[in-house]
Specification:
It contains nine helices and ten strands. With 267 residues, the chain is of the alpha/beta class. The strands form two sheets. A six-stranded mixed beta sheet has the order 6-7-8-3-9-10, with helices on both faces. Strands 2-1-4-5 form a four-stranded antiparallel beta sheet, covered by helices on one side. The longest helix has 16 residues. It is globular, with a radius of gyration of 20 Å. The structure holds adenosine-5'-triphosphate (ATP) and magnesium ion. Magnesium ion (MG) binds next to helix 1.
Length: 267
């Protein structure tokens, strides 16, 4: 039936295309993406730089306007020109590589401001929801800290709590750990894993193959604006069918070493 989706499908992307620029400068970045994510599923999206992973996520909550195709979230067509996009966005939490916390607000202030501005919650209710979600990410004791007093990993967990405090149905993560020092990655992944265990629907763009292997219900490999293959983590990461997937995984597993430091500079 046109215009609706199965109730169990939380995110449904159909024949999605996105072109940046026009004429000779046109760059088709998404070339017909079909992706369906059931409620409670975790889908990890992997692929080389420039393959369109971020653009795909950004089209799901209309931070980018698709050139053609349809996107449904919770059965509502996001790409319908008459949709209340603010209402749709409230159902979608987004976490980026850079956490963008307000430096002049405490952790609690960062969590209550959007609840009050966007959802119209009162101060006490917003503070209670903030406390609940800080506990969920293991940062109940940082409620009164300022972002600059936190590690990068803690700041990212605050950003996750901020998104959760809005009560989203689906969470989109765009390389949430790639700006972090390696020793801080684990705590953020642990929070994401617990969200998955709680049944949150999640689309996660990540280079963390261990996370994808352990947490994802499905892994999607993108290249050149297309889904090259998708399947269980075992299918895609262990027994990939496509040569492009194999080549990508080989590069991720054995990154190109940094050029050697020239001799004689005292280091
Ligand atoms: N706002 C924009 N205007 C023009 N081109 C854009 C815009 N955003 C992205 N692109 C182009 O779209 C292509 C895909 O970008 P995208 O950021 O989706 O890739 P990605 O898979 O997320 O890459 P990375 O792993 O480096 O984050 C790139 O060629 C990029 O230059
Ligand atoms: Mg990206």
């Amino acid at each position: 039936m046109a215009g609706t989706t199965d109730a169990a499908t939380e995110v449904d992307v159909r024949a999605l295309r996105k072109t940046f620029g026009t004429g000779a400068d046109a760059n088709e970045v998404l070339r017909g993406i079909d992706l369906s994510v059931a409620a409670g599923q975790v889908v990890c999206v992997i692929g080389p730089s420039g393959s369109g992973k971020s653009t795909l996520l950004r089209c799901v909550n209309l931070l980018e306007e698709p050139t053609s195709g349809q996107v449904f979230v919770g059965g509502t067509e996001v790409t319908d020109p008459d949709v209340d996009i603010d209402a749709v966005r409230r159902r979608i939490g987004m976490v980026f590589q850079h956490f963008n916390l307000f430096p002049h607000l405490t952790v609690t202030g960062n969590l209550t401001l959007p609840q009050r501005r966007v959802l119209g919650r009162g101060r006490a209710r917003a503070a209670a929801v903030a406390a609940e979600n800080l506990a969920r990410v293991g940062l109940a004791d940082k409620a009164d800290a300022y972002p600059a007093q936190l590690s990068g990993g803690q700041q990212q967990r605050v950003a996750i709590a901020r998104a959760l405090a809005m009560g989203p149905e689906v969470m989109l993560f765009d390389e949430p750990t790639s700006a972090l020092d390696p020793e801080l990655v684990g705590d953020v992944l642990a929070v994401m894993r617990s969200l998955a265990d709680d049944g949150m629907t999640m689309i996660v763009v990540t280079h963390e193959m261990g996370f994808a292997r352990e947490v994802a219900d499905r892994v999607v490999f993108m290249d050149g604006g297309r889904i090259v293959e998708e399947g269980t983590p075992h299918d895609v990461l262990t027994t990939p069918r496509e040569e492009r997937t194999r080549a990508f995984l080989a590069r991720v597993a054995a990154p190109v070493p940094a050029p050697p430091v020239p001799d004689g500079d005292g280091r």
